[in-house]
Description:
Elements: E1 22-27, E2 31-34, E3 39-42, H1 44-56, E4 62-70, H2 73-84, E5 92-95, E6 101-107, E7 114-117, H3 129-137, E8 140-147, H4 155-164, E9 169-173, H5 183-191, E10 195-199, H6 200-209, H7 217-228, E11 232-237, E12 241-246, E13 250-253, H8 269-283, H9 287-301, H10 316-321
Parallel strand pairs: 1-4, 1-8, 2-6, 4-5, 8-9, 9-10, 10-11
Antiparallel strand pairs: 2-3, 6-7, 11-12, 12-13
Helix pairs in contact: 1-8, 3-4, 6-7, 8-9
Amino acid sequence: MVERIAVRAQHPRPPLGTSKPVSILLFGELLVDRFPDREVPGGAPFNVAHHLQGLAGTQGPTPILISRIGKDPLGKRLLAACEAAGLATTGIQRDALHPSGRVEVVFDAIGGPHRFVIPPDQAWDYIHADTARKLALMYRTRRLYFGTLAQRAASRRALQRLLRHSRISGFLDVNLRDPWIDVDVLRWSLTHAATVKLNEEELDYLGTLFELGGDTLRSTGERLSRVFAIRHLLVTRGKDVAWLLDAEHGRLKTDASHRAPEVVDTVGAGDAFSAVFMLGLHLGWPIGDCLNRAHHFAAAVCGLRGAVPTDHAFYQPFRLAWGLDAEVKI
Length: 330
């Protein structure tokens, strides 16, 4: 059974003096991650939305998932998980032909690397373009989070329409998943993203794929940023370090002032990083704070079993430290 999230629902409300809520759209997979011992709701867009809601509440942007689930018992449980996390479900489409998504999370060792087994032809592969675009018009949207996995099938058309017919700033999490890697998808995605997050292995892969050259990962990243006009290139290296190539501030690297918790697993750490960096951009944090806070939070998530906490109190220390708590209602 999908594990329920222990938090009272918080429904979107428009800020004072506006007719539309300010939002971040999160496009792609909503599914169940099947661990060896349990099932939990997942998919990168769900994980990022969960963290945005848990950290910022009414002070931050309203996270709006755009996904698709089956008309099956698993779909009902996924909807319940979204509602329990305080997330709006207006962007979640229902599909009578395709099943709700499932992913097998396979570990080679306890606390070690993991891999995903992702079946094809799941409901999130068939997000309807017109429905998604109409939803985007309902909100004052500043950013759209997306990845490459959700573009492996018909959902790609919906994403292209969202970005083609709007001035939304794209946030791309490269998030390569074998065998669902397509050079045309990667090229299009990089072209339509102002901010790109990836790990060092993925950066090296893209450098080879696009023949960027470069003697170091930094030089490869600089060439990637120039070729695709990327404003923020975020590069992670596990729990140890992350660095940023920024069009205005150059290269920044995370500090080592905090001690990372013991790693339980690294599932969802990149999603946690993305959520905090986007939140920082929205709230106008200094770019160095965006980077360090994102890295700190991602390291903390590595101390959890799974991608998101089961207890909403997990977010409390971060809200207090970052001055978010006064505006959050639980």
